[in-house]
Amino acid sequence: MRVNLFSSAFVCTAIFTGSVMGQTKKDAAVKLITLDPGHFHAALVQKTMLPDLDATVHVYAPKGEDVQLHLDKIKGYNERKDDPTHWKEEVYLGNDFFNKMITEKKGNVVVMAGNNQKKTEYIKRSIDAGFNVLGDKPMAIDKAHFEMLKAAFDDAAKKKLVLYDIMTERYEITNALQREFAMLPEVFGTLKKGTPANPGVEMESVHYFYKYVSGSVLTRPEWFFDVNQEGEGLQDVGVHLVDLVQWICFPDKVVDYKKDIQFNNASRWPGTITLSQFNAITKAKAFPAYLKKNVVKDSLLHVYANGSVNYKLFGVNIKVTAKWDYKAVEGGDSQYAVLHGTKADLLIKQTAAEKYTPVLYINPVKNDAAFQQALNAKLKVVQAKYPGVEVKKEGKGYTVIIPEKYKDGHEAHFGRVTEKYLGYLRNGNMPKWEVPNMISKYYVTTTALDMAKKAKK
Fold this sequence. Notes:
Layout: E1 2-5, E2 32-35, H1 41-44, E3 56-61, H2 65-79, E4 88-93, H3 97-104, E5 109-112, H4 116-128, E6 132-135, H5 143-159, E7 163-165, H6 173-182, H7 185-188, E8 201-210, E9 212-213, E10 216-217, H8 227-230, H9 238-249, E11 261-274, H10 275-282, E12 295-296, E13 300-313, E14 316-327, E15 334-340, E16 344-349, E17 359-364, H11 369-385, E18 390-394, E19 397-401, H12 410-427, H13 434-456
Parallel strand pairs: 2-3, 2-5, 3-4, 5-6, 6-7, 8-14
Antiparallel strand pairs: 1-4, 8-15, 9-10, 11-13, 12-13, 13-14, 15-16, 16-17, 17-19, 18-19
């Protein structure tokens, strides 16, 4: 069944100078296809219109609530008062949606954000059919899917297609500035190797099931709470943390997962959701049959939403932890991250003391006049890239003062990732480290799952 939505919207088609990778026609527009959207990240890719994108987006999905929630979000972007979008959604609904997409070839970039049990196969088959892919994390949730993902990257390279995952956390300003200061040896020194008990790098994120997206309470699909479909905590949002470790601590360095990574240990543990909480999040009045095996006392759902891995990368001991809770006391998803340097620690905190917004601190090992002089001198390097950033001496360390213009929020980061991806399509200039490092981070998360499960036995 084909549905033409938002047909009254103004359609503006942007054309590349040159050719789009994976396409034979010159001056081809980038035309998005949204495949089986089941996660709100699929809609956030379209929250902002970019000049390189055709405004007509083809959606292929089975009938159901998932696709309707997606279309409702796009409709909301089109109808908002401030800076409305002008998307025209051409929707095909049916059980043969995937084959229909392959046959019709209405676009050249497939956007995927949905059920992660199916996503890796979707990626592989889309690449095999000649489509570029912009995929939400995680692109693999277990070892079998990791092997399939590796094959997809191999095929993409042969076909000169761009397969890329959506790493929004690189655009969060405190993460970006932590990276900038870590690249200043006069301030940070060198990264300590640490030990498994006292790692050189520690990162932890806490996400929440109940949250607001684009101004409204998010309705999650029921399958989101099935780890066989969504993935466990470390294998899902933990991908961001593993990516940040590589991106911040070893900028532009290629990671060979076969030789550069060694594991210390890994663990996993369940969180609990009540039936009333499940109802508030999904609008469902009862747990679906496939979740009943995880229900205790008739009303408490156990979800393996929490996980941790302790490993070495280039000899540096690293601990990464991903957690989920029901609802934030205040603010939204939060992160803790510390890099231990020989001259200073770079610490990101997001607690009540920081008013639940991320703050970057520089805590020197020796806070003397020489350090302060070096910090003031090298601050100019950071300011050349981020004008207006300052440091304020507080107690035994320094707080990085970040202008509000850089605090654009998580939802805006999807547009920035998409813009970066379109640049790779246009120019064919994806850095050499991106693909091997994508493979490496999914190796870390999926290997950690195997280790954690074995440790429980």
